[in-house]
Write a structure and sequence with these properties.
Elements: E1 2-4, H1 6-15, H2 22-33, E2 37-40, H3 41-50, H4 52-60, E3 64-66, H5 70-82, H6 97-109, E4 112-114, H7 132-137, E5 145-146, H8 148-155
Parallel strand pairs: 1-2, 1-4, 2-3, 4-5
Length: 159
């Protein structure tokens, strides 16, 4: 099972139109309907605000929207502390509260995360400047993070 971030869902929707990539979306539909691919509620909300049609597609195919549990909230707070973020003092170049909840969801569920947030080739000197992939790779977080294309390639699916 995988958790998908809003960035990857939006990336897929924008770059692989259903009309031009029907087999990809048939496969994606099967992933959603089997609950192999799930989305945290904060990511679902982001998608619904930015691309309502995509959100409608997810709803139509019974996408599992993962709510925040106490365990996810506690994990998000632990990651926040690990990054040295106090109160709501997020860095504009780093993760925000929703990102922490998305990472915490994947960590709590012990699954991989699909995110198309920019990879940082050189880790920032200030931890709170880290983006999702860098936070996931932190030794104390340890969540495998793939972008959408890596997700497709790792599936072995042929379209």
């Amino acid at each position: 099972m995988l958790i998908i971030d809003a960035s990857s869902m939006i990336y897929a929707w924008d770059n692989y139109p259903i009309e031009q990539f029907p087999r990809l979306w048939e496969w994606e539909q099967a992933q959603v309907e089997s609950h192999e691919l799930q989305i945290p509620s904060v990511a679902f909300d982001e998608v619904s605000h930015k691309i309502p049609d995509c959100c409608g597609w997810l709803n139509e195919h019974g996408c599992m929207v993962v709510p925040e549990t106490n365990e996810i909230l506690v994990t998000a707070m632990q990651i926040k502390a690990l990054l040295g973020i106090e109160n709501d003092d997020y860095h504009p170049k780093g993760v925000d509260e929703n990102d922490l909840l998305i990472i915490a969801t994947a960590k709590t569920m012990e699954v991989h995360l699909v995110s198309d947030e920019r990879r940082q080739m050189k880790l920032p000197d200030i931890p709170k400047k880290m983006k999702i992939p860098a936070v996931c790779s932190h030794q104390d977080v340890n969540v495998t993070c793939k972008n959408f294309l890596e997700y497709i390639k790792s599936s072995g699916a042929v379209f």
